[in-house]
Amino acid sequence: MNTTSQLKNKPRNKNVLISGASVAGPALAYWLRRHGFNPTVVERAPALRDGGYAVDFRGRAHLTVLERMGILDDVRRARTGMGAMWYVNESGKKLAAMPADLFSGDIEILRGDLARILYEATRDDVEYVFGDSIAAMTEDEHGVEVTFERGAPRRFDLVVGADGLHSTVRSLAFGPESRYVKDLGLHCAVFTTDNFLGLDHTGHLYNTPGRLVGLYSSRNNTEAKATFYFGSPKQSYDRHDTGQQKKILAEAFAGVGWETPRLLEAMWDAPDFYFDSVSQVRMDGWSRGRAVLLGDAAACPSPLSGMGTGMAMVGAYVLAGELAAAGGDHRTAFARYEEEMRDYAGGCQKGAEGTAKVMVPENRFVAWFMSQNYRLLPYVPWKGMIAKGARRTAEAITLKNYGL
């Protein structure tokens, strides 16, 4: 008897509320439906979020999950097809190339395109509630009473926080995010703009002490993504006030050369502006009672690792599989899920440690030293070591079949 038929014969904790409709949430909803559960996804945004930076998949584990979901071909069709990225000087002269596999893995795709593929794969048999968010949760022996910001209260068997770095579920179930979010000393921003440099499946990066600004083409060169990183202590701002965030970015990059002034001018009209700290989430446990965390909400490795999206997809597969294998027994399933994922997530986080100072050097000497290393990279015997190390990290988990 397979896992799905077991659940049909003995329903237990089948109604699952998932907070977050970006990547981890819809991926989990897909697998829960495959295993016979009834997921509901609630998302604060009024519609599916477009935009965002490029994310990548690398190695056997990532690609296996995509293949088992039946979306590998869709992801490949939407891939960015990026080549090498170039460091440039203030006048735009190319100084050094960074190989594609270092930035893009096996498949690179825009986060918004991946979210759309996952949504289309689940929309017909998963309930989505947009424009709302969890306000409170009250757990008892038999389930969780959930109060929403706008909708009427509802009752669920389990609640999953797949709602990112600033997880609402984590705050409600575990306490303030200040206990768990570790800033790495950087802030970042990304938005869509015109491909005014005529970049052809490539990008340019410009470094000054404490600042990194870049532009890379996307969607077959029809547009471009502007990216900014800058060293900064923890900032105090309203996470929902993009106007305030844009002012912070404009002040941080005032006087920086290259194409920075033009990009800052375009920023004010950008429809998909994103701004946040570069941070990791460190927790001793990912579940409490009937609530469990997934993806960045549980163990955000930060954008610097290049592992967050792949880790979230793998985690969704494992969490749904362990719930099915345990017949819906959340205590057993949550413990096994964490046992399977803990070391893997730790490896993904470790890959980002120390990257901040290398990526955004603090002073001119370090910036010069790194530029010399980038220039020599194509000629040194160990040029592929970083990409190979990232692949080993991405593959450091053995996936179970979970009866499917």
UniProtKB/TrEMBL annotation:
GO molecular function terms attached to this record: FAD binding
Residue ranges annotated for the FAD-binding domain, each copy included: 15-343
InterPro entries: FAD-bd, FAD/NAD-bd_sf, FAD_aromatic-hydroxylase
Protein name: 2-polyprenyl-6-methoxyphenol hydroxylase-like FAD-dependent oxidoreductase
Lineage, highest ranks first: Bacteria, Bacillati, Actinomycetota, Actinomycetes, Streptosporangiales
